[in-house]
Predict the 3D structure of the following.
Amino acid sequence: MRVSVVALGKIGLPLAVQFAAKGHQVVGVDINEKFVELVNAGQEPFPGEAHLAELLAETVADGRLRATTDYADAIPNSDAVVVVVPLFVDEETGEPEFGWMENATRSLAEHLSPGTLVSYETTLPVGTTRNRWKPMIEEISGLTEGQDFHLVFSPERVLTGRVFADLRKYPKLIGGLSEEGAKRATAFYEAVLDFDDRPDLERGNGVWDLGSAEAAELAKLAETTYRDVNIGLANQFARFAGQNGIDVHQVIEASNSQPYSHIHRPGIAVGGHCIPVYPRLYLWTDPEATVVRAAREANLGMPEYTVGLLEGAYGDLTGAKVVVLGAAYRGGVKETAFSGVFPAVEALKSRGAEVSVHDPLYTDEELQQLGFTPYALGTPVDAAVLQADHPEYAQLTPAELPGVKVLVDGRDRTDPARWAGVRRLVIGRSVSQ
């Protein structure tokens, strides 16, 4: 098959490589000229994705994968077009910002050939595929969906850093606007993906047709919103436990020892492109979802709460030298999307602290570009807040933070045995050294 992938980001590029590795001819289109140049040179544009470097080099070298900035080059005569353009959400209003996706949709529609399958993988509010993309593509292309081309929604369900493993591990969900479109999407994804054996799934692993685009859209929103609500509940348990002399981590371990409880871990923040964003897409179409809204608000308040723990243990933070450990939104991933570092730094500054930031994945220049004062281990400091659970921080000791009096570990990552003599607090635990 000839396959076009629109947007070669941290999901789109691994998808393009996966399709090419299965023997298909793949053209990726992206507005980022530097990305396109690197892809055509067989070089990964971003670090951290397992197996991407070798698979990219291999598929480019044998001519199965190339990239372009020109939709007129990428889209015509494709058997399938897969769209993975980012969708942003306004931080203040929660409104979806469709601008980039609309531009991409217009461009692909201008060059769409009859017979093409178009699959949107970007997470969308329920109804977007049918009510926004279908009429736009039809108007611009002059083609009729269900007759001249087929439109489906098939959400990506992978995490950056392990995309290829996740593609094999989880069922591929699809929802068409017509029965024929769903059949074509099923055949397409069966031809470009491999699936691990999953005896735990009654339906088995593979391509799952959910019957409609709306069902597939809701499935992705539901699975990610569940995580946000679950973490919000864990955070409320943690705040209560910490105030009442209870170790919430023991409570969660005990609760999860039977099969009907799956309580997540509490922490300083919920970050990333997915969990903080997709509940807001759900709320946009279901504003009466009070449980979802309450959980989102609870999680948004955790950085402020964590800094409050530090203030309660340390005292007045005016002039105190405080380092925030971790700019990334989660350990081992060089990404700051909706990272808790931003509200944590603001909360500390509002209390008069002198704030610096450390992250083993970022250079001093990169931290400065993010608006932070870089911190070097070994520099005197009064207090610390651990924001990202990088594996390096499990080995951290007070000797690397000379003068530190209080550590608030927002991820329960540090080893308490290494912190004798320093007051160490963990969210959901009232005991500290």
Q: What stands out?
A: Residues 129 and 257 are 41 Å apart (CA to CA). The longest strand covers residues 2-6. The chain has a mean pLDDT of 96. Residues 213-243 form the longest helix (31 residues).
